[in-house]
């Protein structure tokens, strides 16, 4: 059974998701693993959208950091050539109107129909949702990145989500450190094992039904 | 006719206890830091604050929160200030959580005189509870009401003395929307210029939305918020 | 009984309406007599809004005419200092959201509660409405300018409109070549006689009930 | 990745009979004159045209009308073309008349993924017939549906090759809204520039809305429409 450091695992997943992106496209990156995906994108015609008001996000050098130029995670970013700024309703009009090609999001749980929970935990106050629900209903494709299991080893791919769902819409693909799944007709389909992983290991760590 | 006022408390004279106040910004980025500080120094209570966040613990709107001046918060991401959860737990504050796109769209609808609108965002989730659901052309939507307020406190980059505004990078965010949705709109800016200095094609907020302009006294820098 | 040329009458009304405007304010001018009002405005802080996308409308010299810079009547205009351009939904958001102080409109009929008809004639195809309905619901104040009677001499101030109404909202003031009316509690109130006009002449030419 | 196409018929290849097409402009101002001419030369029929006007008699969309290619018109002011009334009288065209603000707002709603919205405009008038009326917070509104289309034909002033757009004076009008509300968006422009040439703060239509760019071949001048 393979073990990774948390960072290695996150980069492994991010790199695999990046390989799935084909330009020309517009991608919105969530907080966490999704943010790392930017490091592995090489196509010139993949543009990043951040919902706080910028299309055309790039890295920024330490020396060029501008405190008024940040992404949705409030981290400093730079502007790509051809970028544009806009207000929050115009930004979410892009998202909700179906004009963003791919949203890459983290998740707490995914059920076996591809529905995800990623904004609230039962028993805790429901304090923040941000743009998660908007991205789920609006992006043409939604890719989920997450560790396959919780800290206690339990599966995050479940028969049913026990946390509040973010949308009734099924995501399109799920990327973990063990495998890549597509959601086909509201069913999880294992389409790829990550390097060194066996189908048995995935089966052992997955509560959700899936086909392969 | 200049809308520029030099004293912050004069600018905030229209704010009264019980008011609903829109406060611009995404975290501290684009937040009207000087006006928020002015509000913490003003004797008002029972406020409803509409803002993406309620500041951070002990910073910005977080100070107002700790002063128990906020009766209700309407926003999308209160998680950025742990004090909000504590107060909510104790029943000391009401909260209305909205998806960020819904918060933005409801403000725009308020400014545009609409009653509300149907969105797919939130359908089938806990945030749709109690909201009307309707199928339109085979798609399920929920109804969201427009948001309007007594006062808006916003931040822009430049204002001309008439009140035309332009913004700076991602500090734009909710500010132009909030400028449209309140009876009184007070803006703090980095720079005040003469009418004609801003290109008519580039003005984001036309002057008819703006009542009062002040020169920002607090600025967000790499090193944090500093007095100018 | 006074008679004017049509042009004189229009200018008389336009001049009187202009006198009613106090800066600072934002005014939207309809087609016809309202357009003439601009000629009589002298306050520097009266700004004109045209719903096709410009706040800060001025006259334009023949030599400076730009075919892509027009008002709602498709007539060439100029830009005031401090003007701004915007798209049609932002423009109507200003109107419908109550951000325009005064709309000055023409009317075909006004009823005795101040409700107007100005967009359609029965028996003809209903072909155009433009921004009339938007301005009526949205402007803080609506001023109506019109000739007091039709070509056949019949009153245009009626007990009830026989043409389709533009809005259920009562206008605030009505300016004709005979008199100025305010609408107070859904009732017409004659507040001023135009020069040389008697109350008897107004009464003779007005079907609507009014107080004075 | 350049979106620039030189041949108008290639640009219009996505237009099919039966399509709903958004056409920008307020009269001839800001109308995509070259694309409209291209459409008159294309063998399509049964079109639904959403545009403030249907051109003037024998001009712009008026030619398309006289070619009997338009099944239905959705707009606010058909009065500018007397032929529309004649055709309507003969039952040769369906018309849907909307207040100009409703036309604009419905296009914006379509682009923003909304199902529809409540407006006070039109309440109690003939144009509210058959529309749901609802009281919200003591005010009467009517429901208006979002408008979405297969194709948008628009005009802008400058495009960079990515598809970012800026507009020119009152030629902006419906164009930026229509850019958001169609599956395929084709824009004709006065000038095509390289990415980076337009200021990110001034771009009105970000490139993700634009599919195809052509250089305008017809221009509105003081002397009328001329070929470039």
UniProtKB/TrEMBL annotation, chains A, C:
Molecular function GO terms recorded: CoA-transferase activity
Keywords, sorted A to Z: Transferase
InterPro entries found in the cross-reference section: 3-oxoacid_CoA-transf_B (IPR012791), CoA_trans_fam_I (IPR004165), NagB/RpiA_transferase-like (IPR037171)
Gene3D superfamilies: Glutaconate Coenzyme A-transferase
Database matches in Pfam families: CoA_trans
Assigned protein family: Belongs to the 3-oxoacid CoA-transferase subunit B family.
Protein name in UniProt: 3-oxoacid CoA-transferase subunit B
Organism: Psychrobacillus lasiicapitis
Automatic annotation (TrEMBL), chains B, D:
PANTHER family named in the record: ACETATE COA-TRANSFERASE SUBUNIT ALPHA, KETOACID-COENZYME A TRANSFERASE
Protein known as: CoA transferase subunit A
Source taxon at top rank: Bacteria
One Pfam family cited in the UniProt record for this chain: CoA_trans
Classification via InterPro entries: 3-oxoacid_CoA-transf_A, CoA_trans_fam_I, NagB/RpiA_transferase-like
Protein keywords: Transferase
Molecular-function GO terms, alphabetical: CoA-transferase activity
SMART domains the UniProt entry points to: CoA_trans (SM00882)
């Amino acid at each position: 059974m393979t073990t990774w450091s948390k960072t290695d695992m996150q980069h492994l997943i991010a790199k695999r998701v990046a390989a799935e992106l084909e330009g020309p496209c517009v991608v919105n990156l969530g907080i966490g693993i999704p943010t790392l995906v930017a490091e592995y994108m090489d196509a010139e015609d993949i543009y990043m959208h951040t919902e706080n008001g910028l299309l055309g996000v790039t890295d920024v050098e330490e020396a060029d950091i501008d405190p008024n130029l940040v992404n949705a995670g409030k981290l400093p970013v730079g502007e790509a050539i051809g970028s544009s700024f806009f207000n929050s309703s115009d930004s979410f009009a892009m998202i909700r109107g179906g004009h963003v090609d791919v949203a890459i999001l983290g998740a707490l749980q995914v059920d076996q129909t591809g529905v995800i929970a990623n904004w609230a935990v039962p028993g805790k106050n429901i304090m923040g949702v941000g743009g998660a629900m908007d991205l789920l209903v609006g992006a043409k494709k939604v890719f989920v990145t997450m560790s396959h299991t919780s800290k206690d080893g339990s599966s995050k791919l479940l028969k049913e989500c026990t946390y509040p769902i973010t949308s009734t819409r099924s995501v399109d693909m799920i990327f973990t450190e063990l495998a890549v799944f597509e959601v086909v007709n509201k069913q999880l389909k294992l389409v790829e094992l990550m390097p060194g992983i066996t189908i048995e290991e995935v089966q052992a760590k997955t509560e959700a039904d899936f086909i392969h | 006719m200049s809308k520029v006022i030099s004293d912050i408390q004069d600018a905030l004279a229209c704010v009264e206890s019980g008011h609903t106040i829109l406060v611009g910004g995404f975290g501290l980025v684009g937040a009207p830091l000087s006006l928020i500080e002015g509000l913490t120094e003003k004797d008002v209570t029972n406020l409803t604050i509409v803002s993406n966040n309620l500041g951070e613990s002990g910073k910005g709107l977080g100070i107002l929160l700790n002063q128990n001046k906020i009766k209700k918060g309407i926003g999308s991401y209160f998680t950025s200030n742990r004090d909000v959860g504590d107060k909510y737990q104790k029943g000391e504050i009401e909260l209305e959580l909205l998806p960020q796109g819904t918060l933005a769209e409801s403000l725009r609808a308020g400014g545009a005189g609409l009653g509300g609108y149907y969105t797919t965002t939130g359908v089938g989730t806990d945030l749709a509870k109690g909201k009307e659901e309707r199928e339109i052309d085979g798609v399920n939507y929920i109804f969201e009401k427009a948001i309007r307020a007594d006062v808006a406190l916003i931040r822009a980059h430049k204002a001309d003395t008439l009140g035309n505004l332009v913004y700076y990078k991602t500090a734009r965010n909710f500010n132009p929307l909030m400028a449209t949705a309140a009876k009184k709109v007070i803006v703090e800016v980095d720079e005040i210029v003469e009418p004609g200095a801003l290109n008519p094609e580039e003005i984001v907020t036309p002057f008819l939305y703006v009542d009062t302009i002040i020169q920002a006294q607090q600025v967000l820098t790499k090193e944090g918020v500093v007095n100018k």
